Amino acid sequence: MIRISSRYVEEVHDATSGEDLVPLLQAAIELEHATIPPYLCAYFSLRNGSGSAVGQIIRSIVVEEMLHLVIASNLMVSLGGSPSLSGPSFVPDYPGGLPMGIGEHLQVHLRKCSVAQVRDVFMAIEEPEHPITIPVATEDEGLAAPAFETIGAFYHALADKIRTLGDSAFVGNPAHQVVASRWFPDPEEMFAISDVRTAVQAIDVIIDQGEGTATNPFDGSGAPAHYYRFEEIVTGRRLVPRPGATPPYVYGGDRVVLDEQDVWDMDDDPKVARYRAGSLSRYRADQFNASYTRLLDSLHRSFNGHPEELDAAMGLMFELRLLSQQVLATPAEWADPSVTALKQTGLSFEYQPLDV
């Protein structure tokens, strides 16, 4: 996980009540969400989707990021907060930086899937505090370790502060907890948060799946943590144990092949306004954004007293997948007649206010 502004960790340390943690959790919710559109752009741009190893890797990470969003929202609810998951201010403007002053000069783009996007953006987002240098079976090369603090420090500080505050900080309505067992069936990952024990357990899920540990690249379920899963795409090999060797892991398993011919040539960092009004390109892009907006609105209601709304939100995720293929199959029709680039219409993930 990438570096964040140190003030967020300092504010966690300085908190004297659960109420003080609420705005910090809102920032964490915004950050967890901000990673999802770029990951989905890469996943949706694969013509064969989850049928490929690359698709399976990216989809698995998206699902876990959604779980982290649910956990952070439930944690905020348990402390008496009201998460905000909708509206234009909730949606990042891509390209740009991520919430919480993250990543120093990292610019996050909405682009089709490529090794460069995974290596330069996705791995930077998910970089653990102490990445493990793991050789590749064919090249025996590792990656240089970074020298900066990560959002993992924020979550560790949050867990420590919750232990200090004790169970009395949990003043939220238990009936407003979203326990989405239908979508996240593992009871070790999805459960109601009501006290110190469950809060710390939930935070550990986020840390474990995102970072692994300083000595083990695998999470508690045996899957590589996000950073190492993305590195499988970059190295082109699955991460597998190598008992008796040092280190006891290697990128030497099954091949992970990203064939550029199987990727839609999506317009980089798209905006709906770039497509000609009245064109099929503009219509498809608007449809996609309307569905994305309904998804966010439904998520917002889910964590503000209507947990049953989550089923509708997850249904909209499937709709978004179907619409993405219609968008990406449509050649871009530019509003500016001087633009002649041959690209497919892009997925812009813009909040689009809906008529009620």
From TrEMBL:
Domain Iminophenyl-pyruvate dimer synthase, first and last residues per copy: 25-234
Lineage top rank: taxon: Bacteria
UniProt protein name: Iminophenyl-pyruvate dimer synthase domain-containing protein
